[in-house]
Amino acid sequence: MPRIISGSLRGINLQTPAGTDTRPTSDRAKEALFSIIGPDLDGAKVLDLFAGSGQIAIEALSRGAISAVLCETDRDALKALFSNIEKTRTSGQVRVFTYDAVRLVRKLVKEKHSFDFIYLDPPWQALVSLLDKIKNYLPDLLAPAGVIVLESEQKQAVPGSFGESLPLARSCTYGASVLSFYYHEKVE
Q1: Cβ-count burial of 167 within 10 angstroms (0-12 exposed, 13-18 middle, 19+ buried)?
Q2: pTM (whole model) above 0.70
Q3: 16/9 Cα distance (integer angstroms)
């Protein structure tokens, strides 16, 4: 059972969806992720596409992020997600969208939203097709000093960049998962 690792909500166990359609991020990968980006979360705005149980966004809120937008369509995942929001009392900090991530990304760009941390953990079997549909929108959603993190399966190839301005900066492997980090190129 995943739990909140650190911050104001530390130690709270989170519900996971029934079945095998949703794959929770391992505690090991989550710990590494937040060790890398942790200092940048204070006051951050988070976008968690393909949110599953919401554990990544809730962990970010626990560590100082001020708000999170989550997107999930799976019925079982949504049950767990709403249960976790209630359990952690974070409803005032989150907005949950229950429709297609591609549609949400387009809507957020049109409304000129900006996020400091964007987490992408699409279903691995659909990763390539989903990323192809959203990759050109992502640079417009990321704040200048923000980061996009893509969780993928170890054997999958990940994009070398999102658009021309978001190159792959680093990748880290944790079991079957790979976390890939994308930052805006610094123009000097």
Answers
A1: middle
A2: yes
A3: 17
State mean pLDDT over 85-113.
Answer: 96
Beta strands at 161-162 and 142-153: parallel, antiparallel or unpaired: unpaired
Domains within the chain, CATH numbers bracketed:
27-183 (3.40.50.150)
pLDDT top residue among 69 and 156:
69
Kindly report the number of other CB atoms within 10 A of residue 27's CB atom. 14
Burial class (CB within 10 angstroms; exposed 0-12, middle 13-18, buried 19+) of 127: buried
Distance CA 112, CA 140 (A): 8
Give the CA distances from residue 151 to residues 14, 23, 93, 147, in Å, rounded to whole numbers and listed in that order: 20, 11, 24, 13
